[in-house]
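Reopening this ticket.

The earlier resolution said the output was attached, but the attachment link was broken on my side. Pasting everything inline this time so it's all in one place.
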Amino acid sequence: MDKLLDRVFEPQRWIEALKTGQKKGIDRSILKRLCRQSERDVLKSKILKDAYEITPPHEAQIPKENGEFRTVYVNTGLDRILLTICIDYATGNNWRDKTYTNPNKQPVSNQVQDTKNKSYVLNTHTMKIRLPNCPSVNKIAEYNRQNYTGDIKDLLSQGYSSCGYCHPN
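Inline output:
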């Protein structure tokens, strides 16, 4: 996971994402703040500690050429920058794909594993799914901790979400 997160925080990715953010009209104060490495380091630290979550998008009405409006869903500026880095909207590729091409155009394997009959550790209070070797497992209070073996899809359908550090799915 650390290698993957390191790729997300490669300076060239941020340069490109900030350029894209400027074209999309993201608030300049957010863009200026994210130009500072120290700000990106704080964000990375929050992600590693599972203390950052993408905010659900809000609805906005966009006028069409015919005078009618259409509803679109808009994320916060920071979330839009992160999503731009993680998802190639032109192709739809993302970090969960089987291969990822880094900025040097070298393919990196990111194999999607079978999710059936795998072992997970659940935090029944926060509804997070973690891999047994995730460092965050040691922080779960015993009364909130539950071992689970099975298909992660079943847990996701029950409202659980994946840990932001070890990304079990």
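Reporter confirms the inline version is readable. The two ends are 12 Å apart (CA to CA). The helical segments are 2-8, 11-23, 28-35, 37-48, 77-86, 152-157.
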